[in-house]
Amino acid sequence: MHNALYAQAGGITSVINASAAGVIETLRSYGQTPRIYAAINGIEGLLDEKLVDLTNISETTLERLKRLPGGAFQACRFDLDTIENRPDQYERLLQIFSHYDIGTFFYNGGNGSMLTAQKVADYCQSKGYPLRCIGVAKTIDNDLALSHCSPGFGSAAKFLASHFLQATLDVQSMSASSTKFFVMEAMGRNVGWLALSAGLVKDVIADLPLIILPAERAFDESAFLARVTDLINSHGYCVCMASEGLRDANGKSLAVAREEHANGKVYTQYGGVAQKLAQQVEHALNIKTHSANPDYLQRSSALCVSATDWQMAYEAGAAAVHAAHKGEHGILPLVQKTQDTPFRWHFENFALADVAELEARVPDHFLTADGMDITEQALEYLRPLVKGERDMKWHDGLPDLRPITWTQVEKKLPDFKK
């Protein structure tokens, strides 16, 4: 029997380590994998031969792993070059796999990470190396195509809705003499799934003066300001949730934090749309406004983990191992809803090539005609994904989230220049 290797990639989620635990425990349950390794820092760490041996990981450490947010094995943002430009990268990976007798590679990531996994699968297959390459789904953006939802999204949505509710109560209580408009920014450079989470607050405050601005709809400043004015006139205040990737009718982003040039590509970091919208309202209506950008908080909060999402993330790891055990290769298990009430799902395998770099956008029927609110169908979709809570252990007044220290295996191969 051959060994297994697990790695994390891309932006993390508050439940990605549950998927890691799902992989480890399910591999153990089959009892057919001599050694279980994890790469530190994803595919980049794999190229560097930064590996941890998890074969004898203790139950205590596993339980800690299940509760930790962030990437316990350090997720990377690193893209393999094309095989034409850097064949040595692929040769190096094959060298690592061969040296450590890796028979199955589990890559835990989103759309872009699945493209990397596909590249690795194709190359190893072309060289006749018996590697099973299996994706493990995750992304807070909820944009994995062909999936009902993405592990990681439910907890991020729960965080945003919970904190948006609390901020709304603050604004509501102060609006007579202070802030009348509040806007929060949600991650989502091309999709507005997370922005939709604010709609859940309507289950608590029925007549909520709310505006939601998802990335799928072009921003119209005049219509937006008119809607803000109407809501403030009728309710005394207005609250708003906007996607960080909001664009106008010409496709121009409302706010870009910075652009980085690396590996011949331009990487755009979005941020600041909430502040921009608050300024527009303040200048147009001459009222006090506030804005908030939770940024990393929405994807790293262990205090707002959805029990449904945690279970889904764990099962994503387990499903990947089940697929490998059946001899599957080059696939990604994705969530398929099987029942509405109570909410039930199972995982179905899809080819990496069918998922890689595809993007699931918010459907039109989830948005109102003016594009500034969500429909009951959207709420029905969101509600089950944020349900349930996980108990949190505390230590000296803070969440007991001490990071796990891993001991890397001794390197045996020459250094590699990435």
From TrEMBL:
The active site is at 141 (proton acceptor). Its EC number is 2.7.1.90. InterPro entries: ATP_PFK, PFKA, Phosphofructokinase_dom, PKF_sf, PPi-PFK. It comes from the Bacteria. It catalyses: beta-D-fructose 6-phosphate + diphosphate = beta-D-fructose 1,6-bisphosphate + phosphate + H(+). Mg(2+) binds at residue 111. Pfam families: PFK (PF00365). Residues 7-323 form the Phosphofructokinase domain. It is an enzyme of class 2 (transferase). Non-allosteric. Its main location: cytoplasm. Keywords: Cytoplasm, Glycolysis, Kinase, Magnesium, Metal-binding, Transferase. GO terms for molecular function: 6-phosphofructokinase activity; diphosphate-fructose-6-phosphate 1-phosphotransferase activity; metal ion binding. It is found in: Cytoplasm. Pathway: Carbohydrate degradation; glycolysis; D-glyceraldehyde 3-phosphate and glycerone phosphate from D-glucose: step 3/4. One of its GO terms (cellular component) is cytoplasm. One of its GO terms (biological process) is fructose 6-phosphate metabolic process. Substrate binds at residues 139-141, 187-189, 244, 296-299. Signal peptide: none annotated. The record marks 138 as: Important for catalytic activity. Its cofactor is Mg(2+). Diphosphate binds at residue 11. Catalyzes the phosphorylation of D-fructose 6-phosphate, the first committing step of glycolysis. Uses inorganic phosphate (PPi) as phosphoryl donor instead of ATP like common ATP-dependent phosphofructokinases (ATP-PFKs), which renders the reaction reversible, and can thus function both in glycolysis and gluconeogenesis. Consistently, PPi-PFK can replace the enzymes of both the forward (ATP-PFK) and reverse (fructose-bisphosphatase (FBPase)) reactions. Belongs to the phosphofructokinase type A (PFKA) family. PPi-dependent PFK group II subfamily. Clade 'B2' sub-subfamily. Homodimer. This is Pyrophosphate--fructose 6-phosphate 1-phosphotransferase.
